[in-house]
């Protein structure tokens, strides 16, 4: 069996605002390498904004 290769994704104290409206504050997250992770939540809660902030 072939072992998959991945990278760890880590954020520390990320804050996002649109103008004066703070969307989230001090978000810290670690996604370990070699793991499958999912970002789940209701529509409009900032999932796509968070992922776009990583790139």
UniProtKB/TrEMBL annotation:
A Pfam family of this chain: ABC_tran
Residues covered by the ABC transporter domain? 25-54
Q: In the record, what terms sit under GO molecular function? A: ATP binding; ATP hydrolysis activity
**Gene3D superfamilies, from UniProt?**
P-loop containing nucleotide triphosphate hydrolases
Q: Which residues cross the membrane?
A: none
In terms of InterPro entries, this protein maps to:
ABC_transporter-like_ATP-bd, P-loop_NTPase
Q: Which domain of life is it from?
A: Bacteria
> Which keywords appear in this protein's UniProt record, sorted alphabetically?
ATP-binding, Nucleotide-binding, Transport
Write the protein's name. ATP-binding cassette domain-containing protein
Q: Which organism is it from?
A: Nocardia vermiculata
């Amino acid at each position: 069996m072939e072992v998959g290769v991945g990278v760890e994704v880590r954020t520390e104290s990320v804050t996002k605002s649109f103008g004066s409206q703070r969307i989230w504050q001090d978000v810290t997250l670690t996604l370990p390498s070699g793991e499958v992770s999912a970002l789940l939540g209701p529509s409009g809660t900032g999932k796509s904004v968070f992922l776009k902030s990583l790139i």
